[in-house]
Design goal:
It contains 15 helices and 15 strands. Strands 3-4-5-8-11-12 form a six-stranded mixed beta sheet, sandwiched between helices. The protein has a five-stranded parallel beta sheet with strand order 2-1-13-14-15, sandwiched between helices. 53% of the residues are buried. It is α/β, with parallel strands linked by helices and 376 residues long. Helix 10 crosses helix 12. It folds into two domains: 131 residues, Rossmann fold, CATH 3.40.50; 225 residues, Glycerate kinase, domain 2 (Alpha-Beta Complex), CATH 3.90.1510.
């Protein structure tokens, strides 16, 4: 039966994926008799585990440094969400430390899983929404490795410490993740963007300002990541053409996958694809009349791994038109998403200012839903 599919990602600081979707659905139902299916989505960032729970995966709790976090399990695989440990927003509070924030708690979480009664064969790490820009060196340290300066002393944690890095001692790594040993646990990074570690679209220059980095701190972080990439390339035997600094997705989460890609035979997958498949989005599009998707910002990142961008691609393949809704919308980004996008709406056009838009996001989304219901 023909129906509307509503697959909204979160409006950070205002609404979660489910809340945003239900607000749009309320508006659609008020102005149209077409049935509505709401699907909770996410990419590799905050909300990943919650979306997988809604899709039917089992949820367990893991204690890391005295803090319980939720992890999703299916078979011999476990999914952890970095944002629960090193998120830019935790407990409703922004955690700003652009030079000092470290990914080490994520490494310790993986190690806690490996030490548990049922060590997983694969650990999938959702890496979006983090406050750190350390190239995953902290994660490696959390797994037992040592990061040393030229005098053999440990370098400080976080992105600032990368400038002193001379070598990484992997002899102290947890045996369970050593790729040369049989039966090792595979690490997979579920990314929310496909950007590289280095360069103008990389972890420091594109994303660290969103994490509170001032212009001079951005340059410190970029230089540190360049030094880290040089150390990793030397250890992995790679050169300028195949440097870890250029791998698509290595810059996600402040570069969190980088060290593991180079030294632990880790690999990258799209976090959005993981969730959309688990939630059954592809099969839901078979009889869909229209797909409505969006998030807080529709911008140049949307077509580079973000969940709404993936929804657009799936809808395009199924021949279903798409309507985009964003808290704010970049027209060029809409054009990048192609002809499947039949219309778009920006909540900023319905509000006097950003604060009003965030405070009344549910009301604005419901109002847009009414407009879409009448138009389609």
């Amino acid at each position: 039966m023909a129906h509307f599919v509503v697959a909204m990602d979160k409006f950070k600081g205002s609404l979660g994926s489910r809340e945003a979707g239900e607000a749009v659905a309320a508006g659609l139902s008020a102005s149209s008799d077409t049935p509505v299916q709401v699907i909770e989505i996410a990419d590799g960032g905050d909300g990943l585990v919650g979306a997988l729970a809604t899709a039917g995966l089992s949820i367990e709790q893991l204690e890391v440094d005295g803090t319980p976090i939720d992890v999703a399990t299916f078979g011999a695989e476990v999914v952890i969400e970095s944002a629960q440990l090193v998120g830019l927003v935790r407990g409703g509070v922004r955690v700003i430390d652009p030079l000092g924030a470290s990914s080490e708690p994520v490494g310790r979480a993986i190690r806690a899983l490996l030490a548990g009664p049922r060590p997983p064969q694969r650990v999938i790490v959702g890496v979006g929404g983090t406050n750190c820009t350390d190239g995953g060196l902290g994660l490696l340290r959390g797994l037992g490795a040592r990061a040393l300066d030229e005098h053999g002393e440990p370098v400080p944690p976080g992105g600032a410490g990368l400038s002193r890095l001379a070598r990484i001692d992997t002899t102290t790594l947890d045996d369970a993740v050593r790729p040369e040993l049989p039966g090792h646990t595979e690490l997979i990074f579920a990314t929310d963007v496909t950007v590289p570690l280095l360069g103008p679209s990389g972890a420091a220059r594109m994303f660290s300002p969103q994490k509170g980095a001032a212009p001079e701190e951005v340059e410190v972080l970029e230089a540190g990541l360049e030094r880290l990439a040089a150390v990793l390339d030397r250890m992995a035997g790679t050169g300028p053409a195949d440097s870890v600094g250029l791998i698509a997705g290595s810059g996600a989460g402040g570069g969190m996958p980088a060290c593991a890609l180079a030294l632990l035979d880790a690999r990258i997958t799209a976090g959005a694809d993981l969730v959309l498949t688990a939630a059954g989005v592809p099969s839901s599009l078979g009889d869909a009349r229209l797909v409505i998707t969006g998030e807080g910002a529709i911008d140049r990142q949307t077509s580079h791994g973000k969940a709404p961008g993936r929804v657009v691609r799936l809808a395009e393949a199924a021949g279903v038109p798409v309507v985009l809704i964003g808290g704010r919308v970049d027209r060029a980004a809409v054009a990048d998403l192609g002809p499947a996008v039949a219309a778009w709406y920006s909540l900023a056009d319905l509000s006097q200012d950003l604060g009003d838009s965030m405070l009344h996001a549910a009301e604005h989304l419901e109002a847009v839903g009414r407009i879409i219901g009448r138009a389609f």
